[in-house]
Design brief:
- The protein has 328 residues and is of the alpha/beta class.
- The chain contains 12 helices and 13 strands.
- It has an 8-stranded parallel beta barrel, surrounded by 10 helices.
- Helix 11 runs antiparallel to helix 12.
- It starts with 6 loop residues before the first helix and ends in a 6-residue tail after the last helix.
Amino acid sequence: MAIVTSTEMFKKAYDGGYAIGAFNVNNMEIIQGITEAAIELRAPLILQVSKGARNYAKHVYLMKLIEAAVADAEQTAGFDLPIVVHLDHGDSFELCKSCIDGGFSSVMIDKSGLPFEENIEITKKVVEYAHDHGVVVEAELGTLAGVEDEVNVSAEDSSYTRPEDVQEFVERTGCDSLAIAIGTSHGAYKFTAKQCTRDPETGKLVPPPLRFDILDEVAKRLPGFPIVLHGSSSVPQQFVDMINKYGGKMPDAVGIPEEQLRQAARGAVCKINIDSDLRLALTASIREHFAEHPDHFDPRQYLTPGRAAIKAMVAHKLVNVLGCDGKA
């Protein structure tokens, strides 16, 4: 199967009460870990590339690695694994155009930090070009806090999505899916201590609940329309603990509880973005490996267990959080 758009994928997810995992990719091991889990579980997949990832690995390398993943599914598993190649947080028409021209099947234009009318104007321009080339577009209303790649928004500058704006925005831009802000946040440090409570037994931060009232109101105003959640890594504490145990320093790293993400996936949310959890799984595994094998220097020695850690983490997400296993 060739690389696909998310149109049919999202329709099935919406009707079926599950979400598609959108995993950020930067190199071969990350792509392999994600796609191997998806192949074994027969789960549809979105592999997304940020501006930072393109700068790091180059567009052509990432595309060829993703094409290899599609071929691997056909050769090793004997079935077509549907994969969407998506631009995450495109910050300009020019970047979106470059990705469309370069073979991506989906792009995001994120102008959520601009005034409403300017967001509409630029999003519509991207939509028109993308649709002319058979590519779908994700847009954003509301602004998530946090730091990840090119995204850096303070808690003070973040804002929840206004449900009363969504219908007009979608109708005027023609976008195919909409990312909204209901309390998720980018990066591994999603919340400040002031925003959280602290578990008296473990001392770890407990994040505030997601604003499901906003999600429900958006879904009422956009029936059947696919909603996207960014900043949805759960920051598994076993990885944080491993990183800290083996020389890291990640105090108060906390994410979105998985049960809340599963609740969102049962509703209008069709795409859930996961990036930090991949980084944490890989980093924790590599730190542990070097602590146990200080004489090792061959990248294959420490990247092999790192890739396995990503695969196991992704498999858990596909089954227990997203609910999309067996849907490919």
